[in-house]
Inverse folding.
């Protein structure tokens, strides 16, 4: 049995959480054990499922409020439980203390980058820049969700074979007319409505305040357009205000955070993601699996275009460009050629090989 400790997940079922849980669901649990540390003090998304899958959760207070206590607890966890691999998932190098503490353990350390830039915030940017050279100098396994995210975090020498795909269970996202009708009825959408959808955090990174502007332009073309927003976040109130100011509140449905997000894609006719930056957004992978044409920011890595259904659009040329291309793109036939590496059944087997290789190499070093 290979014992692996996962760090970096929180209570929001976002990209990191879904990525790691997808692997946990499909990895051979007779050979691998995933345990988790909650360093944010709010619990973990999918906590019940983690326990059902045989995982243990170490619950700690928010490390920002009680840093010394959390650091001591992490040291105890690392020293007392003898994990073979500590897999640390990060969005930036702004906080590398858990990595430095793990580095002192006897485990193999994986640092897995899930982003390709850093959100605004002067302190966060300073800390990222300061810590990045330290992080890059450490003898850790340097992984990333995409080549772009890898080069951003680890530099041009990042190895493509260390890209860990944000793979998904394809069967969950297969088109289902009954589910489509159920979700659309819940939202109050008519059969004639054309629903553009977004799934993710309401944050600056996701550029969510741009989305209502796209809907306004689409409404100029056709009154049938509606907007479905799945998620939550710090910009929710600003988003609601903007929607009201644009007088489109009757055209928008807020679904909130959903753990059965696969069903909500069924209600959509296309998917939009105008992010300012991303690693490789798992929501874009899911939307393609659901058979949706996808319209995303040109700041997102082209690796996302798995099926040939993704169009990359500029965010600095106005919402009318997005509306025009969305309207034109909805009428095109979808070429749906799936890349096998994004199927979780295949990807989990590849991850098993990586873990086993690290375990074997670590064992040789100990001898």
């Amino acid at each position: 049995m290979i014992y692996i400790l996962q760090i970096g997940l929180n209570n929001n079922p976002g990209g990191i959480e879904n990525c790691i849980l997808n692997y946990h669901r499909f990895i051979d649990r007779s050979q691998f054990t995933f345990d988790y540390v909650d360093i944010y003090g709010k619990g973990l998304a999918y906590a019940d499922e983690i326990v059902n899958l045989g995982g243990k959760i170490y619950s700690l207070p928010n490390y920002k409020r009680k840093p010394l206590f959390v650091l001591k607890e992490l040291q105890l966890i690392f020293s007392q439980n003898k994990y073979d691999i500590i897999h640390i998932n990060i969005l930036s190098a702004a906080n590398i203390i858990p990595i430095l503490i793990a580095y002192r353990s006897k485990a193999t350390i994986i640092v897995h980058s899930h982003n390709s830039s850093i959100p605004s915030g002067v302190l966060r940017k300073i800390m990222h820049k300061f810590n990045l050279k330290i992080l890059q100098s450490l003898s850790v396994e340097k992984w990333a969700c995409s080549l772009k995210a890898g080069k951003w975090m680890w530099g041009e020498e990042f190895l493509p074979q260390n890209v860990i795909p944000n793979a998904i269970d394809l069967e969950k996202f297969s088109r289902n007319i009954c589910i489509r009708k159920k979700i659309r009825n819940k939202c109050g959408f008519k059969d004639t409505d054309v629903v553009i959808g977004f799934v993710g955090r309401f944050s600056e990174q996701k550029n969510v305040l741009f989305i209502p502007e796209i809907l306004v332009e689409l409404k100029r073309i056709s009154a049938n357009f509606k907007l479905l927003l799945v998620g939550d976040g710090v910009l929710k109130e600003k988003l609601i205000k903007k929607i009201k100011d644009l007088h489109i509140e009757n055209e928008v449905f807020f679904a909130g955070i959903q753990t059965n997000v696969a069903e909500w894609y069924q209600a959509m006719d296309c998917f939009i993601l105008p992010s300012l930056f991303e690693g490789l957004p798992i929501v874009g992978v899911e939307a393609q699996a659901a058979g949706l044409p996808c319209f995303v920011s040109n700041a997102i890595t082209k690796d996302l275009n798995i099926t040939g259904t993704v169009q990359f659009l500029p965010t600095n040329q106005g919402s009318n460009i997005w509306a025009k291309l969305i309207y034109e793109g909805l009428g095109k036939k979808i070429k749906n050629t799936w890349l096998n590496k994004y199927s979780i059944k295949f990807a989990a087997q590849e991850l098993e090989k990586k873990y086993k290789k690290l375990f074997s190499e670590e064992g040789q070093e100990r001898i």
Summary: The chain has 13 helices and twelve strands.
